[in-house]
Amino acid sequence: MTSYAPRQPARVLGVDPGLTRCGLGVVEGVPGRPPSLVAVDVVRTNAAADVAARLLAIETEIDRWLTEYRPDTVAVERVFSQHNVRTVMGTAQAGAVAIVCAARRGLPVSLHTPSEVKAAVTGNGRAGKEQVTTMVMRLLRMADRPRPPDAADALALAICHLWRVPAIRARQSTTSGATMSGGGGL
Question: Is 50 one of the annotated active-site residues of the chain?
């Protein structure tokens, strides 16, 4: 008979990348249980400012969060095809900054698509922002709506990672014996 060993809570920083608004959210918990809210905010940069200065401001704030909240892993929204090339470039650049900040500290990083996040949090990969925000509030027992929506999206990313990655790893190890590359943390 094997003894039961409870999982240690993991702390995840979720990053909803954006050049004008970059959502940051930290949750803590174990898969299958409602997580706890640690912190949430949005880094804002001036759209008229130089792109290098904007990326540096995002990097400085993410680095501060990594120091202050000490996450075990970082979950970043995977950028995929959008119609506005300018928007997708800024989103990709901000996401890359988050990945570099985590890598510099040796933290594992996972990327999740918007539909993965929606499915993990609401059960529906095509859920709207309102439904995602409502579920984030319910899961984290929040009285007030996180604003702007980028804040709720960052929390949803962190929750998604907390709940999905262990199941994905378990499935991969039983089917192929392989481990997830680029993931880690949980």
Answer: no
